[in-house]
Write a structure and sequence with these properties.
alpha/beta; 14 strands; globular
């Protein structure tokens, strides 16, 4: 999966509402647009996420903030969004400027001439957008109109408007510079004006819809030009997107991934191998599928990827995916297309083996990857096509239909294995161990997209224990929900945090995060309910509740059209799109068909346990027996 970070730059005090709108409304819509393109877009918003609470000296704290800031800009290039209203931002003193200058490499020496008398915000904009011609086409600036302050009380306006004439002058110069540079490069379309309005009742700026739509369209158009979409076979493309998405959530687990890759890459189909497959098993939420996704992604991106033929399957994703016959028949068609052969063969299993042998003798390396093998069941298709050959059922259930000369990896829950169904003498069962402390640390650092938690916050997060005594982080899904909750910290929280002016801002933020984490449930299903409850403060409770219940009772996903019909008069397409984008870490959209489905069974259980009666009533009403 391709990851694209968009750095958000602005003065801190006056742009809280815009940053929240970008995080909760703009970025989710862009993410939704690119989901089927195997692209993950995220905003880099450093209002929090630079750990300076333990640094006593102010200059050292500020130097660390800038170090993280410029490194993050460097890593997220070329995409940059700058926001300017009527504040210029903080101007550092000479000693601090010297520390800032020491952060730049020889190639970035041009920045040294621009630091004196400049605000940190202007330095960010010079470094991330204005200083290099190649960055300009991918940088976007939004200027807030002064009309936003017309109805604003004076005591509120001080947070939004600089009263220092020198800073006002520098701000005008900066805006003129931005407009001039973009005009000289024929990119006037990258600079926008917007006019929010002050709402006296809430005491906040509102009306960011036009602002958001301009940003969404500009970034979608830009990213689309840089990326192309694969239009291959439906199921193959769907599985490709599925496994690459899962790979993007795989952190740690280096030992097992190395072992599995060594097994696949070292497998010689023309010799006798002691084993030809691994069965990854473990409890729900232990990360089996993300490991499979990582293996898939590594093989696709390997130097010899043109030699690998990856035969993939995700059991349980559709009604057809439950059929052994459908799976092998589809693989036969994929092999025919790849090998440019076609023969009529009544027995699909025999034909499968013949095609694989033909592939191997022509230098190809077929690999079978099956996710959630425990979800298979004998369907009507299997009964019809395998009629009169009882041994075929055991052949499929034991994975013996995969020839000894072909390597495979599949995942399954442990209960399925305990029933003795998967008894292939040539496969090895690999019990997926719980997430280690080191794995969990890597997950947190990677999933925060460049932000940092203080050591105290990390220790508190990783000290949480489930009712069975195991660390909560032993299940990666718990960590994923925890990070999603932390990512919800926004304008309202910052307003509460910064009320007490007698305490350093960074320590107030750290204290707030510690209290927030302390309230996290230790079980993933209960923690997901905390995430849902938080959403009630942002969006329509009725739409969230109905949508999550429908996702719970839906076995193979549900379309937006079906949800609209069920909601009836409560339906609000814009609100619904925001909710689905807010849930995007936990709800997957089927490639091409766009059906929505929970990404994990634990999430379904969470909603079902919390709303047992409603779930049963809805199931009786909308699910045919």
């Amino acid at each position: 999966m391709k990851n694209i970070g968009i750095f958000i730059s602005s003065p801190f005090t006056d742009m809280q509402a815009e940053r929240d709108y970008i995080k909760k409304r703009v970025i989710p819509q862009i993410q939704n647009h690119f989901r089927n393109y195997d692209i993950n877009v995220y905003a880099i918003d450093l209002r929090w996420g630079v750990d300076t609470a333990s640094v006593d000296f102010e200059e050292e704290r500020e130097a660390k903030v800038l170090d993280v800031c410029f490194n993050t800009i460097r890593n997220s290039r070329p995409y940059f969004v700058g926001l300017l209203g009527s504040r210029y931002g903080w101007i550092p003193n000479k000693e601090y400027r010297d520390k800032v200058c020491s952060l730049f490499s020889e190639d970035e020496g041009f920045m040294n001439a621009y630091t004196e008398g400049r605000s940190v915000t202007e330095m960010e904009m010079l470094y991330g957008a204005l200083g290099e011609k190649d960055l300009i086409p991918h940088s976007y600036f939004f200027f807030r109109s002064d009309s936003a302050y017309a109805q604003m009380p004076d005591n509120v306006k001080t947070d939004y408007v600089d009263t220092d004439p020198k800073k006002q002058h520098k701000l005008r110069q900066l805006k003129n510079k931005i407009q001039s540079i973009f005009h000289q490069n024929d990119r006037d379309d990258c600079v926008f004006d917007y006019s929010p309005r002050y709402d006296p009742e809430s005491g906040a700026l509102t009306g960011f819809e036009e602002f958001g739509q301009k940003m969404i369209q500009a970034l979608i158009d830009d990213i689309t030009k840089e990326c192309s979409n694969d239009t291959s076979d439906y199921v193959h493309r769907k599985n490709d997107i599925y496994f690459k998405r899962k790979a993007g959530s795989c952190y740690g687990r280096k030992e097992i991934i190395s072992e599995l890759l060594a097994f696949i890459r070292g497998f010689d189909p023309l010799t006798i191998n002691p084993i030809n497959g691994y069965i990854l098993c473990g409890e729900s939420g232990c990360g089996k599928t993300t490991i499979m996704g990582k293996i898939y992604s590594e093989l696709v991106n390997s130097e010899n990827d043109d030699k690998y033929i990856l035969l993939t399957h995700v059991a349980g994703s559709t009604p057809e995916s439950l059929s052994y016959w459908e799976m092998v028949d589809r693989w036969n068609h994929e092999l025919e297309f790849k090998l440019k052969v076609h023969n009529e063969e009544e027995d699909i299993v025999i034909y499968f083996e013949k095609l694989l042998m033909y592939a191997v003798t022509n230098g190809y390396k077929p690999v079978v990857l099956i996710d959630t093998y425990d979800k298979f069941k004998t369907t009507d298709l299997d009964v019809h096509h395998l009629r009169g050959v009882d041994d075929k059922y055991s052949l499929f259930a034991s994975l013996s239909f995969i020839p000894r000369f072909i390597p495979f990896i599949c995942t399954s829950i442990k209960d399925f294995l305990d029933e003795g169904i998967l008894l292939n003498n040539y496969s090895r069962i690999y019990d997926i161990e719980d997430y280690s402390y080191e794995d969990a640390n890597e997950f947190i650092k990677s999933a925060l997209n460049g932000k940092e938690l203080s050591p105290n916050a990390i220790n508190l997060l990783l000290s949480k224990k489930k009712t069975d005594g195991k660390p909560s982080y032993s299940q990666p899904i718990w960590l994923k929900i925890a990070v999603a909750l932390l990512d919800q910290i926004g304008k309202e929280e910052f307003s509460r945090i910064t009320k007490d002016d007698n305490i350093r801002a960074d320590r107030k933020i750290d204290d707030y995060i510690l209290k927030f984490i302390d309230g996290f449930s230790t079980e993933p299903d209960e923690l997901f309910q905390q995430f849902i409850m938080l959403g009630f403060g942002y969006f329509s409770k009725g739409i969230i509740s109905t949508t999550t219940l429908l996702l719970t009772i839906s076995k193979f996903g549900i379309s937006e059209c079906s949800i609209e019909q069920i909601l009836g008069e409560k339906w609000d397409p814009l609100e619904f799109s925001y909710i689905i984008q807010w849930l995007s870490s936990f709800v997957e959209k089927e490639p091409i068909s766009n059906s929505l489905i929970f990404a994990h069974d634990i999430l379904k259980r969470s909603v079902e346990n919390r709303n047992a009666v409603e779930t049963q009533n809805m199931a009786r009403r909308y699910v045919s027996s």
